[in-house]
Design brief:
The protein is 62% helix and 10% strand. It is an alpha/beta fold. The strands form three sheets. The chain has a six-stranded mixed beta sheet. The protein has a four-stranded antiparallel beta sheet with strand order 2-1-4-5, with no helix packed on it. Strand 11 and strand 12 form a beta hairpin. The longest helix is centred in the middle third of the chain and has 53 residues.
Amino acid sequence: MRKKSISESAEYPAKVGRFLLPYWRMILLLFISLVVQVWSALQLPNLMADVINDGIVAADQGVVVQTGLMMLGMAALNGLTMVVQFFLAAKIGSGFAQDVRNAVFNKVESFSMAEINKFSTASLITRSTNDVQQLQLVSTLVMRMVLQAPIMAVGAIINAWRTAPNMTWIIGVSVAAFFVVVVVLLLAALPKFKIVQKLVDKLNLVSRENLTGLRIIRAFRKEKYQEEKFEKANDDLTKVNLWINRAISFAQPAMMLIFNCTILLIVWIGAQFIIANDLEIGSMMAFMQYAMQVILSFLFLAVLMIFLPRAQVSASRINEILQTELSVKECKKPLTPDESKRGVVEFRDVTFSYSDAEAPILNDINFTAMPGQITAFIGSTGSGKSTLVNLIPRFYDVSSGQVLVDGVDVRKLASADLISRIGFIPQKGVLFSGNIESNIKYGAPDISEKDMQKAATVAQADFIKTLDGAFSHHIAQGGSNVSGGQKQRLSIARAIAKNPEIYVFDDSFSALDYKTDAKLREALKPITKNSTVLIVAQRISTIKHAEQIIVLEEGRIVGRGTHGQLLESCSVYQEIARSQFSEEEMAEELAAAKIETKGAKQ
């Protein structure tokens, strides 16, 4: 059984820092090893002082050997604990990053189209990769430096004061100088760190546009324009990164200057005390090492402070995803579908508008689609056809009214239960990397080979037989190695293999020629005889035999009926028909419509 991740727990806080909580035992062990390492490191200067003062100066070889062996043991203990720290910090950082990536991925998977539209695809990719890497880097540094540096600094200051209290002020001056450099750097760099991540988003967006739109770019000979667009985004990012690197480059020599000046000051002042017999040589050397430990501790914190602002920006960007309120929420107490209304799709007074739209896209939509029948939607571009069918699988939720499936409001059905009843075929065929078999079985992985082949046959995907490996033929990412019509037919085969009770074809026949379209619709009849079929179409020839055709205009239903009825009664439908039929064909269609209407009246 798969271990439940943190991100799958609805009660788990969304703040990024909370993803470290499961590693508290390892963090505790890391802290213990840090304490041991700091303790052993603090012993070395004292032992070295003893070697110099009591061994070398006093010419006592026994003290040199005995104390030297103790120093060797302390150094070995220090090295061993450092190895443990590196191992634990890397393990915690990697696990933390993995959990955050899973959380972001799972959250994005739960997004409706409203949330997807809020974040660009390029931004979502940056947040789940680059931003998470920033957090992993800083979390690893925090595990080692933030826990170690304060303990080391405090311990070193205490020991330095015990060793040479008259020179402790030197450490205070050095730390103050370090603090000034770090504050100036942070004040200058923090705004730039925020800009960097936005520029990375922009660069990813331009790169993605270039890769996905490569054929269009070449068809319109716009390579130069796209190159200039990419170069501008790249130059903007490079300039900001160069500015940050220059600021960091300035800080590094400044810190080293402070460090070296501190050592010189200790030697100068210490020499005066030694001449006056107020300080031993070994004690001065020990004080110097303690000062170095204090300075290195603050240097570690300074390095972390350089990385921390960028990590804070990354954390806020990830938190923005994790804390995004879902517009389509899972029902806590889902209802059971009414099996007596199996396959029935009903819209009751449905109105829908996008969050940033000034006016509703759909207004007062009412209709019922029954099993065994085809309900078709047609209208001009922007009339709301695709938006309407997107409400059925809850890609969006209605603004008002109800969408019912099997007699239950879709908002009161479990999402998995709702989706299991629907075979959705989008306008643009979407395939996943793998092979043809994995794509057809995507919604029904347990179907037999016979059923898979039948689904392909019904979808008129006969081209599979001509491919190397047939159903095991490799499919590239996005289906880039098959044509648009082939992708469309494989998408239809995928829905057929699922054997749903409701088929939703969102203009799914647009990439097919008239002959293939007709053959596919004919092959679908026995497969969908007990299912509800909803078709969004631009071509009247695709839907003219539908039992119910709904005509949309500016988000409202302006016509409803059969092909013949609408030709006689709906001006919008007549206008669409005239744009697709010749005058002779239109005359024939109108004559057939009159005969149909006359027969219906009798």
